[in-house]
Specification:
Elements lengths: L5 H4 L4 E2 L4 E8 L18 H13 L6 E2 L8 E10 L4 E2 H10 L5 E9 L11 E9 L13 E2 L6 H8 L4 E4 L14 E12 L2 E8 L6 H13 L7 H8 L14 E7 L19
Parallel strand pairs: 4-12, 7-8
Antiparallel strand pairs: 1-5, 2-4, 2-6, 3-4, 7-11, 7-12, 9-10, 10-11
C-alpha cells in the first residue's frame, strides 16, 4: 500500500455525493457483539456504532462494508471499510466528524476517495491477524480485555516450528467452526510466525481469507504444542485428518486482532502502521 500522508487524511476539499470512500477503523471489540449489525438484536455492534456516527455527519443513513467481519470480543487495529457517500463531505469531515460521534473504543484513522471498483471485502488480497497471549503465572490486570492469558509455560520455538505446517493452499477443515458458511474449506496461508516478547507471545498469521474461528482454533492447538501437551507434528496431523473434533478448544476472542488488509497498489490506500499498540516496539 502507498502512504498517502496526513494531508490527504485531513483534506478539507469537499468530496462529491456518490463518491466511494474507504476508511481504516480501529476498535476494542470487548464491549461489542462482533462487527456485523444485527437487525433483530439490541446488542451493540461495531458496524452499528460506526453507521450511526457517519449518519450524524451525513444527516442521512450510511451503509458500510468491511474487509472482514470480526466476532464478539475480537479487536480491529486495521479494519478497512468503504461506503458510498450520500452527500458531499470532505475527508476531514468524515474522520473528525465521525470520531466526534463515536464511543472512545472505536476510531476512524483516515478516509479517502477510491475508485468505484474498490470493495473493502472483495478487492482484498490478504488479511493479517495477530493473536496475543500473556504467558505468566498471574493474569494481567492491565489490558486484561485485550490479551489471552495462559498460565502454563509456552515454548514459542515449538509453536513456530509446528505452525510452518500451515503454510500454502490447504484444506483447513480441522480448524473450521461448525457454523462456518464458506463454500470451501481451502485457504492459502502466506505466513505464520510465533515470537515471544517478554511475557507476551504473538502468533502472526496472514492468508488470502479465513474460515470462521480459523485463527482462534489454530491458536488453541498451537498453545497445546507450546505447552508440551502435543507433539511438534500434531498441527500437520490435524490438517491431514480434517477433523475439527480432534483439535484443541477454540482460543478466547480477546487475544485476537485484525491488524492489516492488503489491496492492489492501484487503489493507493495508506500503509498500515505496525500494531496493535499493546505490543512492545
Amino acid at each position: 500500500m502507498a502512504d498517502s500522508g496526513a494531508d490527504r487524511v485531513f483534506a478539507s476539499t469537499s468530496l462529491p455525493s456518490g463518491a466511494r470512500i474507504a476508511c481504516r477503523i480501529e476498535y476494542d471489540g470487548s464491549a461489542y457483539h462482533g462487527w456485523q449489525a444485527q437487525l433483530k438484536s439490541p446488542s451493540p455492534t461495531v458496524q452499528g456504532a460506526l453507521e450511526h456516527a457517519l449518519e450524524r455527519v451525513a444527516a442521512q443513513p450510511v451503509r458500510v462494508h468491511c474487509a472482514g467481519r470480526t466476532d464478539t470480543g475480537v479487536h480491529g487495529h486495521a479494519q478497512i471499510i468503504h461506503f458510498d457517500a450520500p452527500c458531499a463531505r470532505s475527508a476531514k469531515a468524515w474522520v473528525l466528524g465521525g470520531n466526534s460521534h463515536l464511543p472512545p473504543d472505536i476510531r476512524i484513522h483516515w478516509a479517502q476517495p477510491v475508485a468505484e471498483t474498490f470493495h473493502a471485502r472483495f478487492s482484498a488480497l490478504a488479511r493479517r491477524y495477530r493473536y496475543i497471549i500473556a504467558n505468566g503465572t498471574v493474569r494481567p490486570a492491565l489490558c486484561h480485555r485485550q490479551l489471552t492469558w495462559q498460565r502454563k509455560p509456552l515454548q514459542a520455538e515449538r509453536m513456530h516450528t509446528a505452525a510452518q505446517a500451515l503454510l500454502g493452499e490447504q484444506d483447513f477443515s480441522a480448524f473450521r467452526a461448525a457454523a462456518c458458511q464458506s463454500r470451501t474449506p481451502f485457504r492459502h496461508v502466506n505466513h505464520c510466525t510465533v515470537r515471544r516478547y517478554g511475557e507476551l507471545l504473538v502468533i502472526d498469521i496472514e492468508a488470502n481469507a479465513f474460515l470462521h474461528h480459523m485463527v482462534r482454533n489454530i491458536a488453541g492447538s498451537l498453545m497445546a504444542v507450546g505447552s508440551g501437551e502435543q507433539p511438534l507434528d500434531w498441527i500437520a496431523a490435524l490438517l491431514q485428518g480434517k477433523d475439527r473434533t480432534r483439535a484443541a478448544e477454540t482460543a478466547p476472542a480477546e487475544g485476537l486482532y485484525l491488524v492489516d488488509v492488503s489491496y492492489p497498489s492501484q487503489f493507493g490506500l495508506p500503509a498500515t502502521p505496525p500494531g496493535p499498540l499493546v505490543l512492545p516496539g
